[in-house]
Amino acid sequence: MGATRRSSRISEDLIEWAIRLCGWSAIFFVFSILFFVFREAAPAFTSGLSLREFFTSVNWRPDSTIKKQFGIVALLAGTVSVTVLSMAIAVPSGLGAAIFVSEYCSGKVREALKIVIELLAAIPSVVWGFIGAVVMNPIITDITGAPVGINVLNGGLILALMSVPIIMSVGEDAFRAVPDTYREAAVALGASRWQIVYKVLLPAAKSGLLAAVLLGVGRAVGETMAVLMATGHAVAIPHSVLDPARTLTATIAAELGETVEGGLHYRVLFAIGCLLMLITLAVNLTADLVVKGIRGREHL
Amino acid sequence: MAASISERDERSPAVFATGPVERRKAFVDRLVQVALAVIVLLVVLPLVAILAHLLIKAWPALTWSFLVKNPTNYMTAGGVWSALVGTIYLVLFSLAIATPIGVLAGIYLHEYAGDNWATRIVNLAVMSLAGVPSIVHALFGVGAFVLFAHMGRSVLAASCTLAVMTLPVLITSTREALSAVPRTFREACWNMGASRWQTIRTIVLPNSISGILTGIILQVSRTAGETAPILFTGAVVFVAIPDTGLRSFFPYGIWDRCMALSYHLFILKTQVSGVPESFEYGTAVVLFGLVLSVNLISIALRVYLRSRKKW
Of the candidates A18, B37, B52, B246, which lies 20 to 30 Å from B96 by C-alpha distance? Predict the structure, then answer.
């Protein structure tokens, strides 16, 4: 009796420690991602690449035999232009859809819409890239007369469709976090549904909505396969939405396979990975700080 | 006096009639509702149109033999079997690695962690991990698993990379599933003298296992669709595997590189020339068909479970 009780106590201690370790594993993984990506990238800056060139040069010529250059300005411009365009489309439509689903629909229609949006979120990014390359490409060349349909506009549209679900679901959570008493008070004052949304819900949910937008931005900046296949391969600052461009993520995906392990080009691509990691960490942590208000309320 | 009463009588219906302000209010409300409905349609319709387009274009290729035959003739003929098996391998291995860690971490966050700064940091880490771009996961996989752990480019390295990527979502979905179990259940169990782990094992887990399973199934579909994390950690353009027999079901060892459906689609579209159009579309349809059907199973399970909830 005593022995079995002691052994069960020991096994329980073991399990509880396993649970604790797994619980803390997320912290471990975040730091090990930072560590391992930085570890592969760091030698680049001690062996020839200047930070100044990295951040200010427009020239990305990793394969040049005369003078190799690793400036990421054009790649940054590609990422920024595709992200801005996709957010210009996805933020209004995502938040609009969130308002519609949470305030204007009820019952079966709401459930059905949420399932459709969930399925939209489930389509793999490589399939989105394929859609961009084979479906959107001819449509864009037909409508705009551009020589190639694989450009910033294509990538922006695809990314917008990919970001709408996340913006919508986080936005809907933000609206749902507003207590019903606010709505009841507004109805009692004679407000119409739109007046409730505009005057009461938007101000009350604004931090949650901002978080939704930031999460959408984080997703758009980090997306790889879709932009690789839909935005083109031209490493140049795009001057219009019909110019092809190349993003930071797509550059890594397209070039890492051809580099020599441990070479300068290889290390610079890891440095871009570090930069991407820091950008998305900053965006996500900001989103979390912004949303903290809502979270606090939910815990009560 | 009498005049003023009759005056009020004349005016009283007008007090309750809709004036210009109310009419404008109702009009704007209606307008906004229509506008929002149009926005939702603009989001949903492209999905339906695109999926229909893919299906129609893929139709000629979609036969049973397309699924169960290996690609032949420089991937311009045959089917997608070896890629499909590779995807199944990656999904199973990565979930086998991620599920125990993710579920235990979810249990920690919901059942053990107090409301303090340490928990807040763990939550922040889970959120940050969820936001890491997939291509950075790929770089991490190369740095940590392929090179540092000497796994080389292999099924194992790719599965580990995918597992790290899956982890935060598994943690979150487990936590949600656990929070659906009412606190009174736990309190009743504690009052019987059960320890914390006994309560979790005998009361909390049995009552939330279906919710946890739903979360895991959802991860199957996400993992199957990922491309970027396996690009440099284990995916390969082509492997010749046996067409028939038992070996065709177990073609890859954990130290081998493998094909994967998502990578196969990428390669067909960008690297190989002379692929019949219907083959590209067919591969895309098989991939998203797999993903969508797994998703629908998970949604159906969720709806079913909600309908028979006991509390």
Answer: B246
* Category of B152 on φ-ψ map: left (φ > 0), alpha (ψ -120 to 50) or beta: left
DSSP H helices in B108-204: 117-131, 134-140, 155-179, 183-191, 196-199
> Does B267 lie at the interface with A, CB-CB under 8 angstroms?
no
Closest by Cβ to B148, choosing from A36, A120, A261: A36
Between the CA of residue A83 and those of A35, A71, B79, what are the distances in Å?
27, 20, 36
State the pTM of this model.
0.89
A24 and A139 both lie in a single domain = no
Check if A50 contacts B (Cβ < 8 Å). Answer: no
Q: In terms of domains, do A15 and A160 share one?
A: no
- Quote the CA–CA distance of B149 and B87 in Å, as a whole number: 23
B266 shares contact with chain A (CB less than 8 Å):
yes
B5 inside domain? no
Same domain for A217 and A286, yes or no, is yes
Task: State the Cα–Cα distance between residues B38 and A24, nearest whole angstrom.
Answer: 45
Question: In terms of domains, do B95 and B44 share one?
Answer: no
In the stretch 31-50 of chain B, residues with CB closer than 8 A to chain A read 32-33, 35-37, 39-40, 42-44, 46-47, 50
Residue B82, beta-bridge partner list:
none
Same structural domain for residues A24 and A64? no
The total number of structural domains that make up chain A: 2
Min Cα separation A15/chain B (Å): 8
Task: For residue range A32-84, list pLDDT tens digits in order.
Answer: 999 999 999 988 888 777 888 888 888 888 887 778 888 899 999 999 999 99
Per the structure, the complete domain to which residue A158 belongs is given by 54-299
**pLDDT mean values, one per 10 residues, chain A (300 residues):** 70 90 92 93 82 85 82 92 95 93 87 85 91 91 87 93 91 90 92 90 90 90 92 85 91 90 90 93 86 52
Q: Are residues A21 and A116 in the same domain?
A: no
Is the Cβ pair A26, B133 closer than 8 Å?
A: no
In a shared domain, residues B179 and B56? no
Same-domain check for residues B249 and B267: yes
Looking at beta carbons, which residues of chain B come within 8 Å of A117?
43-44
B287 in contact with chain A, both atoms CB, cutoff 8 A: yes
Which domain covers residue B124, as residue numbers?
A: 64-307
Whether residue B125 lies inside any domain: the answer is: yes
Question: Is B7 among the domain residues?
Answer: no
Q: What does the pLDDT look like over B252-293, one tens digit per residue?
A: 888 888 999 999 999 988 888 778 888 889 999 999 899 989
**CATH code assigned at B290:** 1.10.3720.10
Q: Closest Cα of chain B to A263: distance in Å?
A: 14
Give the model's pLDDT for residue A3. 64
d(CA B230, CA A245): 24
Q: How many CB atoms lie within 10 A of CB A134?
A: 20
Element (H, E) at A69: strand A69-70
User: Is residue A46 situated within a structural domain?
Assistant: no
The dihedral of CA A103, A109, A110, A116: what is its sign? negative
**Interface-testing mutation among A5, A194, A247, with chain B (most B C-beta atoms within 10 A):** A194
- Identify all chain B residues contacting A135, using CB atoms and an 8 Å cutoff: 50, 53-54
The residue of chain A with its CA nearest to that of B39 is A93
Distance from the Cα of B307 to chain A's closest Cα (Å) equals 14
